[in-house]
Design brief:
Helix content: over 70%
Largest sheet: 2 strands, antiparallel
Cofactor: heme b
CATH class: Mainly Alpha
Distance between the termini: 25 Å
Subcellular location: Cell membrane
Number of strands: 2
Order of helices and strands: HHHHEEH
Strand order of the largest sheet: 1-2
CATH architecture: Up-down Bundle
Membrane topology: Multi-pass membrane protein
Shape: elongated
GO cellular component, one term: plasma membrane
Structural class: mainly alpha
Protein name: Cytochrome b
Radius of gyration: 19 Å
Length: 180
């Protein structure tokens, strides 16, 4: 076992509890949003409206969680030493940066979508509408929102797969850093 691997067994090598919880809350919100986005149209019209309302509300929660997570990381978060250097460390940093940018893009496009069409939440509250309704623009926003969401899920799945390779292939206990 190398010195780096031994260091992973120390509590020092773990992220702080707030960083860990913000990570897992983000994961849960993204999964809920993606599943709702993929399946809402399978349901009857009345149920579909409620599901899209939940999608918008959960998206609004993520719109608060994501900047909170970034600000926490910048201000208080712990920067842990890389488990592996070189190319793996570069790819890990690139993946994390890509996930943050993709999440921000998905949230921006989702906000534009809800605002542009004046979405109604649970039949009682309307999201403030931006601009005049143009079906072609709305379709483009919705298409790019879906593409960005699917890309986010693919990159997140690769991120999770890499963590599992570290845990079970390299046996470097990487997952202990983010264990709640």
């Amino acid at each position: 076992m190398t010195a780096t691997e031994e260091h992973l067994f120390d509590d020092v090598a773990r992220y702080d509890p707030i960083t860990i919880w913000l990570h897992w809350i983000t994961v849960a919100l993204v999964l809920v949003l993606w599943v709702l986005g993929q399946t809402a149209d399978w349901f009857p019209r009345a149920d579909r409206a409620a599901m899209w309302s939940v999608h918008v509300v959960v998206g609004a929660i993520l719109l608060v969680v994501l900047p909170t997570r970034v600000l926490w990381r910048m201000r208080f978060g712990r920067s842990l030493p890389p488990v592996r250097g070189g190319l793996q460390h570069f790819i890990a940093k690139l993946t994390h940066g890509s996930l943050y940018l993709l999440l921000a893009l998905v949230l921006l496009l989702g906000t534009l979508d809800a605002s542009y069409r004046g979405a109604t939440l649970f039949g009682t509250w309307s999201v403030p509408q931006f601009g005049t309704h143009n079906p072609a623009t709305l379709r483009a926003i919705q298409a790019w929102h879906g593409i960005a969401a699917n890309t986010t899920v693919v990159v997140a799945a690769l991120h999770a797969a890499a963590a599992l390779v570290h845990q079970y292939g390299f046996r470097d206990r990487l997952l202990t850093r983010m264990k709640p």
